[in-house]
Amino acid sequence: MLEHPERTGQDGIELIKHFEGLRLRRYLDAVGKPTIGYGHLILPHEKFDAPLTAGAAEALLKKDLRSHELALRKLVRVALTQQQFDALMGFVFNLGPGRLRSSTLLRCLNAGQFERAADQFLVWNKAGGKPLAGLTKRRQAERDLFRS
């Protein structure tokens, strides 16, 4: 049985919170999806008519992390450190487990090529085919955490 951290650690949570930012009211994300809190995509059956409190936003983030943590543990076939798991959670929280599933990052990781996997974070810095400064910073921070 492989050893995987069960939950996102504090470093991973702080990384996600930093790059997602906190918005207590509904807003449209970069691709026009209704969002609230720390990057929570509002589902059709959810109503957020009133602003969130900071505590409610944190609870919603932790709830969102649970499904991503399960997906990540199913995809990864090698043992991970807490820092590696946290970095991958930052990636999965931002892009979804489907993107990781089909990525060279995951192929390298599962082949035990940890340095090549770390470098693959940097490939995922584009939107609409163009590098974005914010995504470049986020992917560098994830890579740094992965390698720490």
UniProtKB/TrEMBL annotation:
InterPro entries: Bacteriophage_GH24, Endolysin_autolysin, Endolysin_T4_type, Glyco_hydro_24, Lysozyme-like_dom_sf, Lysozyme_dom_sf
Pfam families in the record: Phage_lysozyme (PF00959)
Catalytic activities: Hydrolysis of (1->4)-beta-linkages between N-acetylmuramic acid and N-acetyl-D-glucosamine residues in a peptidoglycan and between N-acetyl-D-glucosamine residues in chitodextrins
Keyword check for Ribosomal protein: no
The keyword Hydrolase is annotated on this UniProt entry: yes
Keywords: Antimicrobial, Bacteriolytic enzyme, Glycosidase, Host cytoplasm, Hydrolase
Top EC category: hydrolase
CDD domains associated with the record: lyz_endolysin_autolysin
SUPFAM superfamilies: Lysozyme-like
Matching Gene3D superfamilies: 1.10.530.40
PANTHER family to which the protein is assigned, alphabetical: LYSOZYME RRRD-RELATED, PTHR38107
Family per similarity comment: Belongs to the glycosyl hydrolase 24 family.
HAMAP family: ENDOLYSIN_T4
Protein name: Lysozyme
Source species: Trinickia dabaoshanensis
